[in-house]
Amino acid sequence: MREMDIAPFQGAGQLQSWNSQEIDDRMSIDGFARMREAMTAARQRRVLEAARLITDVKGGRTDPYFLKQAWRPTEQHAVTYLNEKYPGLFMMNGRRIGLLETMSYSDFSALTVDILDRTLYGYYTDAPVTNLPLVKTHPLRDFRLRAIYEMDGAVTPFSRMPNDFPSLVPHGAGEPPTERSMQQAAREVEGSTQRVTYQPQLYQGMMSVNWRALVNDDLGIFNDLTQRLAISGRRTIASFITGLYAYSGGWSTTLAAAVFANTVTTANGASTNNPPLSFQGLLDAITVLAKQLDLDGQPIVFNGSLYLLVGPALKTTAESMARAVQADISVGGGTTNAQGFPSQRLRIPNWPMTGISPIEDKYLPLICTGAMKNTMWALVYDPNAQNRPGIELGQLRGFETPQLYQKVPNTMRVGGGVDPMMGDFFTMNQDFKGLLVLGGTQVDGRSWALSTGQGS
User: Fold this and answer.
1) Domains of the chain, residue spans
2) The whole model's pTM is what?
3) Residues whose CB falls within 8 Å of the CB of residue 35, separated by 6 or more in sequence, listed in order
4) Are strands 306-310 and 356-360 parallel, antiparallel or unpaired?
């Protein structure tokens, strides 16, 4: 086939309109094959040049005016410029042929997206609820109020009785011995019927996706909708737990209360007030926990392991302390003797961190927005090993983890079945939601030792 035979052909669509007699009259089989190869090569060049033009426009190297001219040429000077800079874009035998006139299926993807190679990255790695070990979980049966009762008293040591005890009446008839009387726990001082209570609440997150968006989703953007709802639910649990021991100004005043004597201060046995996180501060926190007394002034024994609660700003400090081989301390408690012990600096094996596991709470600086958000830390005994935990978290049975639901589609083809892609009949949306049922409160803060970390 001669070169002049190619000139009249502006696209493959025109070839489809010929009948077999016309093809036989105008070219041989070999000529037709060569022409098809030439047109394929021209189409590929046009796609590549179109992509290069769009990239240059987005990069600021070419005026957007020329992109408009490439779609629908109206000015000869623009056509001349494009023909020189992007040869093969739309010129054929000297005639102006815009991209719209020669568009094929292969052209479409190159001309309707910003780049040729697209990738959708997934969401960030979801972290577990790291602060869950700090609370005692309790399964709830329903949404009704939960009451927690605590009684103190009747635990003091026995008294030595004189030999003539049978002849003595230590108390009035019908009255319990004063020494063994029971009373409400220290937090419940407002009356004889006081108790610790909380009521679980329903937490819900919803999202909808329209059918049109699902049709256009060629990257799988909406494939992980339910996973994102699950992430949102776990974050709800984590932030709710943090809110039980912290608020915008610092540690919860209900948990870090004077009645519990659990702040790391000199009044409670520490060597300094609210020390920053260090081996010295850790020893002070251990001392505060060791000196805890009940309402009768008797010592308390805590079971279980210890957790070191820190925010992101103290994560490396806590990890370094956990991995240290030796520790330097200057005061280990007690009274200084004539030789200066224990006020002199000592280098000892890293026993203070024995049995202590660091826990990083990433929500701590988000909920506590005050000056201590990057310095506060706490030492906590395992709440599940205590008869009176510091904090209780109530979760409705079956809703301990986020429960995910989807609205049943109600759109049906005429004469067919339900089309799940269409979703709701009126909105054409697919609706999803996640549910949680949570409640909680502070119970007894004696198993916590809290420091603002600000040295005052």
Assistant:
1) 3-112, 119-456
2) 0.69
3) 1, 5, 6, 9, 27
4) parallel
